[in-house]
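call fold target=Solute carrier family 12 member 1
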Amino acid sequence: MSLNNSSNIFLDSVPSNTNRFQVNVINENHESSAAANDNTDPPHYEETSFGDEAQKRLRISFRPGNQECYDNFLQSGETAKTDASFHAYDSHTNTYYLQTFGHNTMDAVPKIEYYRNTGSISGPKVNRPSLLEIHEQLAKNVAVTPSSADRVANGDGIPGDEQAENKEDDQAGVVKFGWVKGVLVRCMLNIWGVMLFIRLSWIVGEAGIGLGVIIIGLSVVVTTLTGISMSAICTNGVVRGGGAYYLISRSLGPEFGGSIGLIFAFANAVAVAMYVVGFAETVVDLLKESDSMMVDPTNDIRIIGSITVVILLGISVAGMEWEAKAQVILLVILLIAIANFFIGTVIPSNNEKKSRGFFNYQASIFAENFGPRFTKGEGFFSVFAIFFPAATGILAGANISGDLEDPQDAIPRGTMLAIFVTTVAYLAVAICVGACVVRDATGNMNDTIISGMNCNGSAACGLGYDFSRCRHEPCQYGLMNNFQVMSMVSGFGPLITAGIFSATLSSALASLVSAPKVFQALCKDNIYKALQFFAKGYGKNNEPLRGYILTFLIAMAFILIAELNTIAPIISNFFLASYALINFSCFHASYAKSPGWRPAYGIYNMWVSLFGAVLCCAVMFVINWWAAVITYVIEFFLYVYVTYKKPDVNWGSSTQALSYVSALDNALELTTVEDHVKNFRPQCIVLTGGPMTRPALLDITHAFTKNSGLCICCEVFVGPRKLCVKEMNGGMAKKQAWLIKNKIKAFYAAVAADCFRDGVRSLLQASGLGRMKPNTLVIGYKKNWRKAPLTEIENYVGIIHDAFDFEIGVVIVRISQGFDISQVLQVQEELERLEQERLALEATIKDNECEEESGGIRGLFKKAGKLNITKTTPKKDGSINTIQSMHVGEFNQKLVEASTQFKKKQEKGTIDVWWLFDDGGLTLLIPYILTLRKKWKDCKLRIYVGGKINRIEEEKIAMASLLSKFRIKFADIHIIGDINIKPNKESWKVFEEMIEPYRLHESCKDLTTAEKLKRETPWKITDAELEAVKEKSYRQVRLNELLQEHSRAANLIVLSLPVARKGSISDLLYMAWLEILTKNLPPVLLVRGNHKNVLTFYS
């Protein structure tokens, strides 16, 4: 019976006829030009192998039958020094090597076109060659011309260029805004709305300066946390139109997005009414002063509001360009008005203003107004509810995300700056107005202090005015009574009125634009099929005219309420519900730990986002509990409706990602959801045998699958079915328990098969459940391939072919010492058993008081207990062994250390990624995930790609742009322009000597002899094959030279795995490629994805 855990089955196992344990130390002192300039001494990597010497055997004496396990170990060291002088050929003498790297193969170099979505407005999507196309043998009737192959492989001739140009022509008239005009201006105008001029003075009068600042601060906390969460979400890929609805729906899925989308659009429509009513109130106050009322104050507000909203609708329908120009003009007016207020506070007050409560800056007024003085029916939270709608303007820029040039940059920058600027302005106005104006004033210039009157601590009394009758009867002036305080304080009153008009109209205009665009994005996604009518857009900017009409009707309905204080709490609850879900979206996406969650905006924390969501929910109930309940009931109803309808959309939401790592009881539900590139994660089958026998291979795989992907440790039992199944079932629970004990989040799976390859083929097809299905095969490098039987090599290369046939990515890991420590484990188990026997025997001997025997036996087992391996010299009869001690740890110290190297925290250094061919991004994704781990966080990514010698800088900029779109941080990018030059003679000679024993040399023999040799040894490398793939062989040898030059000091090398085309490349030649490619290097990961996208820059 031949089992998987025997030495002749494991991929990197030792030859079966080994006699001793040998350590070969390789001195990697290559004297290349680059290395000569490097003052640092790169680490030396040591290789462990088993030699064939039988001299000086070391043995330990124990019971007969157990001696055979330890008969063949010896520590010895032999040093093989490689002395190579590198001299690169002049690449400029042959234009063949000046062409783009990859020109002579169908393998495609990394390009952004491969990662675009179909129908992308930023450019055409190009399909890279499939793995089948580059892996299968070329058909004989297919002629691939260098020009066409080059153009397709390198993207020089991209299908659909003409269509792309036509699309650009169609987009020529589209208006797009930058971060200032598109976000900053809109947010500032929306935040500096009706509250700044009409209600802020009243809020200070009610709550006082102290609580007023707290009210502003609490509002800013909510909006800042939401702004941070929104910035993280919108920088995690390309943002389309729809603003907050788009961000929430793409993060949490259509259920949350669909429910909040309607509420958010409705809230913006109602906000139009709120701002217009604020404007109408100001106009009515002016009419009162001039005694020009039309009907009565309430109806006048309705009339003026209706006329205003009609005019705003006309501006909006005219187009975004006109609306943007109007916003800029309104901002200028608003800034002048604010400046006018501050100027007015330092202009000496006259008697008229003093009678109305304005005395310039006075410490007594500041002290009197610092504390609260709530009137009947008002309190902290009711005042907060009135003010908070002023903070809702932070989404004004995000709501027109589809009209921004670069939403990922514009939304975070513009929104956060707008929050800061407007907060400073609100605080400054609140403090200044509280320090200048008293709470109550009569407006009568004759209400001055009579001589000898007691002021009772009144600030106005101390300044010469008696407003004491305001305690018993209503007054018309002061912070508590006059909503037009800022007009009175300012240097020129009409400017404040103009500012009020500007603030209210700009906010109303922004909301009137936002509501239809958000609603249109919701309708376009077809979540509510009945609303598909409103998805249609008109003109080059795709204006939602139908949405404008609907928003107009909603605003008109709420204008009829004509009470600002009634509208404000409703708006607060609707917007707070949106804010809560934005914060929760950021938390949810972070908590799901999806590799697709890579926000470029790094100043966020998922727990802070969760706190922001909880804070928003709490504030909703504090402001108005019944309105909050109604909001949640509506949202819950819509959520259930969307869930029941199951819209046919797949946005790669964090809900899917979190479901993936949740309990298996959700697996059945997950099968109904298609995979999305954002949620791709490596799901690995690792050919470890028993998981404890190759810990290093398991550790490096676990490093990039822990908490994010599936990891299955697989073992193949080969031999008679009955015996294999018995052994397999007997060890299943033990090996899974070992994984749990060692806190390795992986599964163990085993199969019994007639041969190793058949077993692996079964695992590749049948492993996994639903979406939790492996997509990557991880194997150790077969270190002993030159000494292994031919069938083992065929099985090894065969499973790589099988993985590609099943469209599964392959990762081959090579470390200098190899992975298999099964013999070390056997030694440890045996010595543990011996220790137990020794203790038991000592106790027995002590009890029997057999001193003579106990001394000899104790001496024997004492040495065994100290983990000594003993050298035995058999006498003539072979029955007596002499013991010579040697510490068992010394013979395998290097192997044991290598087996734990990935458990340790990696020193500060680099992970060098040689992304030579575009495999869908797996070669880039795996090292990125590694850098997220605590053990690898000190390692920075260095990216190496091929390119033209005369276009180094251009291609470096292009690759940097691609990586920035992927939100993948890197330390440096190197464009290697000399990959296609021939390797130096010494390196090529090493390769030729390596393959010499396996060559057929049929060209040196007559035809009959050559044909006979081919039939007898079909596995050998023919001269014709070697000549056909000579360029590829050059490439592997040359790459090793470059790796030695650039990456010898790296902590880890991640390298594109060359693909052997079936039927064209013999197994031994392919193994020689892998050997020469990874020879004398730090730990290497050879990676080849399945040529389907695993990275995206879309939301």
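return ok
The longest helix spans residues 194-234. The chain has a mean pLDDT of 78.
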